[in-house]
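Re: [ENG-882] Designed sequences occasionally contain unexpected residues at chain ends

Forwarding the minimal case from QA. Structure tokens:
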């Protein structure tokens, strides 16, 4: 049986959206192909990603010896998933709810911009 790399790459990237991060499996396949002698450019065309994404996958393997996505730094989320769902449900039920009522619904000290970010992820706005 002859291995078709194009079909293999299509199968790996089938569920991937544009600008979405590469999965650990795709990163492993990329590093394997580059280690086997394929150029970064041809691997980028095969997986339909940028050469920069190929380089980053290879550098991640060289420096950290892992294909897992590294943990990001930054502020932890103020709202829990349960609180976010509650806010979204409140806004969907009553669009005329006051800003202050939304802020008080979480029982935490948060700003209105935090609520706006939460709603924006679900294409909602107050």
């Amino acid at each position: 049986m002859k291995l078709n790399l194009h079909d293999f790459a299509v199968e790996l990237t089938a569920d991937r959206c544009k600008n979405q991060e590469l999965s650990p499996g795709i990163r492993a396949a990329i590093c394997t192909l580059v280690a086997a002698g394929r150029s970064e450019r041809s691997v980028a065309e095969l997986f339909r990603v940028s050469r920069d994404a190929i380089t980053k996958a290879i550098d991640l393997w060289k420096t950290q010896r892992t294909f897992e996505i590294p943990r990001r730094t930054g502020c932890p989320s103020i709202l829990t998933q349960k609180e976010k769902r509650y806010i979204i449900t409140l806004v969907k039920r009553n669009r005329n709810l006051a800003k202050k009522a939304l802020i008080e619904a979480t029982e935490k000290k948060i700003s209105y911009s935090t609520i706006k970010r939460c709603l924006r992820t679900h294409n909602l706005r107050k």
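QA comment: On inspection the terminal residues look reasonable. Residues 81-120 form one domain. Proposing we downgrade this to a documentation issue.
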